[in-house]
UniProtKB/TrEMBL annotation:
Domain (YncI copper-binding): residue spans on this chain: 30-183
Keywords, sorted A to Z: Membrane, Signal, Transmembrane, Transmembrane helix
Tagged with keyword Flavoprotein: no
Composition skew (Basic and acidic residues), residue ranges: 197-206
Signal peptide limits: 1-29
A Pfam family that the UniProt record links to this protein: DUF1775
Keyword NAD: no
Top-level taxon in the UniProt lineage: Bacteria
Name recorded for this polypeptide: Nuclear export factor GLE1
Region spans: Disordered: 157-216
Residue ranges crossing the lipid bilayer per the database entry: 217-238
InterPro entries cross-referenced by the UniProt entry: YcnI-copper_dom, YcnI-like_sf
Length: 256
């Protein structure tokens, strides 16, 4: 009887531990801008992945918009096709021409990129799914240390969530932070020098990073379950020894 109780306790504890890990990840979910592989360099090109999780219990995400600040003067932004999503890149005339690191004068630049779900497509309601939207862009500016991309997330019930709050100097994350990517100093080794090589490197690193993150999560969950199992097993062994000792003492007293 006691063995069954211990087993149930172990399963319950393991379930609670894993649920805690999952809940921690879900609670901190927000739209982020990510880089896989070499960090984009000032004056170069690179691939950026916008990760969009769904946070509405009863509604799915059907549109994502990312604003590109005119002062970045990004003359080239390309999107990677995603089945079921229609991408649009909007360019606007700059109030003042900007000269890039290569000496090219830019009078028109990308100011918005959006992805709209086609009928039957969405990031499913609940908090278990996300989608990543990739762009390959450049030339990046040389006078900023990071790129900030205010974003909006539209749900099928009409709700719109703005992810546009800058992170303060203290580093404390606001409630709805704007996705951002840090730029590395130009190294001259070719990183960020073109769309093709950069996109390939980013995608390969992305695949490796995703597999590695999954392996780490599973490994962490395994450690939690293993530790709980050891604790339950040790408790059961200790109780069994105590019961045996008590029985032996009782038999000895009976013999006397």
């Amino acid at each position: 009887m006691s063995k069954h109780v211990f087993k149930r306790a172990g399963v319950l504890a393991a379930t609670v531990g894993i649920t805690g890990l999952l809940s921690a990840g879900i609670a901190s979910a927000h739209v982020t801008a990510n880089v896989y592989g070499p960090q984009p360099e000032k004056g170069g090109y690179g691939s950026i992945f916008f990760r969009v999780p769904n946070e509405e219990k009863d509604a799915g995400t059907i549109k994502v918009e990312v604003a590109v600040k005119p002062e970045y003067a990004l003359s080239s932004v390309r999107t990677k096709p995603i089945p079921g999503w229609k991408a649009e890149v909007v360019k606007s005339k700059l109030p003042t021409p900007v000269t890039t690191a290569s000496g090219t004068q830019i009078t028109e630049a990308v100011t918005k990129v959006s992805w709209t779900a086609e009928p039957g497509t969405k990031i499913a309601a609940g908090s278990t799914e996300f989608q990543e939207f990739q762009i390959s862009a450049g030339q990046f500016p040389t006078n900023v240390d990071a790129l900030e991309f205010p974003a909006t997330q539209t749900y099928e019930n009409g709700k719109v969530v703005d992810w546009n709050q800058p992170t303060p100097a203290s580093g404390e994350e606001p409630e709805h932070p704007a996705p951002s990517v840090k730029l590395a100093e130009k190294s001259g080794d070719g990183h960020g020098g073109g769309h093709g090589s950069d996109a390939k490197t980013s995608e390969e690193s992305h695949a490796s990073s995703s597999s590695d993150n999954t392996a780490r999560w599973l490994g962490g969950a395994g450690l939690v379950v293993g530790a709980l199992g050891l604790g339950v097993g040790a408790g059961a062994t200790l109780r069994a020894r105590r019961a045996t000792a008590a029985a032996a003492t009782k038999n000895t007293e009976g013999t006397k």
